[in-house]
Design goal:
about 30% strand, eight-stranded mixed sheet, D-Amino Acid Oxidase, Chain A, domain 2, about 30% helix, binds glycine, alpha/beta, FAD/NAD(P)-binding domain
């Protein structure tokens, strides 16, 4: 092994979650390093960037809703700070979202979502099909009704990743452009990593933020390894015409035959259509079937998409966790913390994750809003001691 270089905090993984953790840690005065062969890459290169705390609400996920809303509230200041620091335009667009129904089943599903949103104190407004089409004239005539959610916005995740790399550089974060191959453990404490080229990187605290790869790092004790799995999402990108009036002025989404489809229009003219959800391990092949289903479902919502140039197809891997919520903070191994498992909400949860991780690195304690997301909720020993008598 070649010589060891040390930092206070070493972040494994330079996706948006690792980068925001490194940036916020460096702002707190920690000498911080990130190890990743391609910082700014990962799932953010594929994600649509919906900030959809309200429209992506699911039964049984009310605890996660609290964290999602906390992060959504921070987005305006977070985006402004990042843009001011780096000069990068993040494509942050406070455009709102319209979730629509195409048939009686979809409509019943959306009515239930509306009821759940109201029980949870969230703002959303039921619209008739005609009202939906008045808002978005490109919608299909068959739209039967919808939910207008003015608080669910969007950001361009590629721009966000680029800005976070720049922010880290500004704060003096050191980038090691290599794969982390093995966690180093010394005297029952995480002490750094060895990279694929045999370089040893030492650190006072190590944050594992490797997205869907987080459960695979060699050297991490079995009982501490995060239960994170890859969930494939295929996405297509089209280009909207620049002509009088927008093609779509807000995110439009629906459940079509049980599958979620969304269309996210950017100010740049890009239209992102996503996403499949497939449990296929590490496969990131773009398939004819995946693209067909996305375009078929999107076409049912907005028939005019068939006229648009198809500019990109891509697949990425969401880091799924057993309860669809992230794993944040200390593990059972001293010196090893996690920031992973963000599943469908990585872009939305970026601001609150950065703040929570910087707080726990500095104090040893997660802030109140992040406590339910301790990785220890999946440890057998903790689960047994917390059983009610
Ligand atoms: N949050 C959108 C997705 O994961 O597809």
């Amino acid at each position: 092994m070649s010589r060891t270089r040390t930092s206070d905090v070493l972040v494994i993984g330079g996706g948006i979650i690792g980068l925001v953790t490194a940036w916020r840690a460096a702002q707190r005065g920690f000498a911080t390093a990130v190890v990743d062969p391609e910082p700014g890459g990962g799932a953010a290169q594929v994600a649509a960037g919906m900030l959809a705390a309200v429209t992506e609400l699911h039964y049984g996920e009310q605890t996660l809703l609290g964290l999602n809303l906390a992060s959504a509230r921070r987005y305006p200041d977070f985006a402004a700070e990042l843009t001011e620091l780096t000069g990068h335009d993040l494509g942050y667009r406070r455009c709102g979202t319209l979730a629509v129904a195409l048939d009686a089943d979809d409509r019943a599903h959306l009515r239930e979502l509306h009821a759940l949103q109201q029980q949870s104190g969230l703002e959303s407004q039921w619209l008739s099909g005609r009202e939906c089409r008045r808002l978005e004239p490109m919608l299909a005539p068959g739209v039967r009704g919808g939910l207008r959610v003015d608080g669910d916005h969007q950001i361009d995740p590629r721009r966000l990743a680029g800005a976070l790399v720049a922010a880290c550089e500004r704060e003096g974060v050191v980038f090691h452009r290599a794969w982390a191959e093995r966690l180093t453990v010394v005297a029952d404490r995480a002490a750094g990593v060895v990279t694929a080229d045999g370089t040893g990187l030492g650190a006072g605290q190590v944050v594992l933020a490797g997205g869907s790869l987080s459960g695979r790092l060699a050297g991490v004790p079995e009982d501490v390894l995060p239960p994170v799995r890859p969930v494939k999402g295929q996405v297509v990108r089209l280009t909207m015409p620049r002509r009088h009036g927008p093609f779509l002025s807000r995110t439009v989404r629906a459940v079509v035959r049980g599958s979620h489809v969304y269309l996210v229009p950017r100010e740049s003219g890009e239209l992102v259509i996503g996403a499949t959800s497939e449990e296929l391990g590490w496969d990131t092949t773009v398939t004819a079937g995946g693209v067909y289903e996305l375009l078929r479902d999107a076409h049912e919502l907005v028939p005019g998409i068939t006229e648009l140039p198809l500019t990109e197809t891509r697949a990425g891997l969401r880091p799924g966790s057993p309860d669809n919520a992230p794993l944040l903070g200390p593990t059972g191994l001293e010196g090893l913390l996690l920031a992973t498992g963000h599943y469908r909400n990585g872009v939305l949860l970026t601001p609150v994750t950065g703040d929570s991780m910087a707080h726990v690195l500095a104090t040893g304690e997660l802030p109140e809003e992040a406590r339910p997301f301790t990785p220890k909720r999946f440890s057998t020993a903790t689960a047994l001691t917390e059983q009610p008598a």
